[in-house]
Structure formats: C-alpha cells, structure tokens
C-alpha cells in the first residue's frame, strides 16, 4: 500500500507506507527523544517499548487508528498517525498528527504527507471528517494544514498540557465534500 505523489516545490515524490520493523527505532525517537521531536511535540519521556510492542501486535495499523511512514526517495521522513474520535452517539472522525525529522521540516514534505493521509483515509474508510490541531504558536504547521486543504475552525482554549503550561490549539478539518470542490 504505497501511496505516492510528487512533492510540492521539491524533488522526487512523497509517499506513505506501512512501518517496517527497521523503522521502529526511528519512530521511537520521533516520539521519545526531545532533540528529534521538536519544540511542539515534546511531552516528556514515556514507555520506550510502547511502539515496538504495538508494531509487533498490530503492525501499527488497526481499526482504531494507525501510523504510516512518509518517505521521499525511499528515505523515511517521520511519521503520520491517526486515531478515531467520537463526534456523536454513533459517529466518529479521524484525528491526525505528524512528526517529521528535523531535516525534513520546512520543505513542503509534511504538507504533502498530510494531503496523502487524508486521501488514504477517505479512500479506505467511511468516515466523513479528518481533523487536526496544533498549538497556536506553531505557525508552520498551521500553514502546512491550510496548504494540505484543511479549513481553520477555531481556537481550543487550554487544550493541551506541554512543558508546564496549558496551551491553546487551533482546530482544522477537511470533510469529503472538500475534496470535490
């Protein structure tokens, strides 16, 4: 299940593929190493074997959510993830996230990875909405989401706790009808 498209403003193509066992150490660094994750993704240390166990048990793909590895010219760029979020008594949407390696940031690769993930989720699930949020101060991610086709919906006050403070987030979404307009 490789999904691939030319990178916006960059050489080669961005693709998404399932995680391989050889990716697990990289994925652990992208979630558990403050130097790798970056300012807006460091939430403190956590169980270092968590992703290895999830990979062994599910391949990081389940009906509740998953992780894929974005690539450029076969080189891993980071991870994209999604999980099911309740929107009503009988309905759900996908909530997505992304962490890129420091060298992959700022080149439009994340924008394309998020665009591919939305298309993948709409092609293979019946959910009507994909949402993402980012800290109010993370202007680069806000631009990336907008370029990927997301609509800014509003500010979620006191939404997330990071580095000793409650942080406001900006909520974005894309619905199926947005892809046809």
UniProtKB/TrEMBL annotation:
It comes from Amycolatopsis jiangsuensis. One of its GO terms (molecular function) is protein N-terminal-serine acetyltransferase activity. GO terms for cellular component: cytoplasm. Keywords: Transferase. It comes from the Bacteria. It holds the Pfam family Acetyltransf_3. This is RimJ/RimL family protein N-acetyltransferase. Residues 14-177 form the N-acetyltransferase domain. InterPro entries: Acyl_CoA_acyltransferase (IPR016181), GNAT_dom (IPR000182), Ribosomal_N-acetyltransferase (IPR051908).
């Amino acid at each position: 299940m490789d999904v691939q498209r030319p990178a916006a403003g960059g050489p080669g193509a961005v693709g998404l593929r399932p995680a391989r066992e050889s990716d697990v150490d990289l994925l652990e660094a992208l979630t558990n190493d403050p130097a790798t994750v970056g300012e807006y993704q460091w939430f403190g240390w956590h169980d270092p074997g968590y992703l290895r166990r999830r990979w062994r048990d599910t391949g990081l793909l389940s009906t509740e959510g998953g992780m894929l590895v974005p690539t450029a010219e076969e080189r891993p760029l980071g991870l994209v993830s999604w999980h099911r979020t309740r929107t009503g008594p009988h309905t759900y949407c996908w909530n997505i996230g992304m962490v890129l390696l420091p060298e992959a940031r700022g080149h439009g690769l994340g924008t394309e990875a998020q665009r591919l993930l939305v298309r993948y989720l709409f092609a293979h699930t019946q959910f009507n909405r994909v949402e993402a949020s980012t800290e109010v101060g993370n202007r680069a991610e806000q631009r990336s989401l907008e370029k990927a086709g997301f609509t800014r919906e509003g500010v979620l006050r006191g939404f997330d706790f990071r580095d000793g403070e409650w942080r406001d987030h900006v909520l974005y979404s894309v619905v199926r009808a947005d892809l046809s307009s």
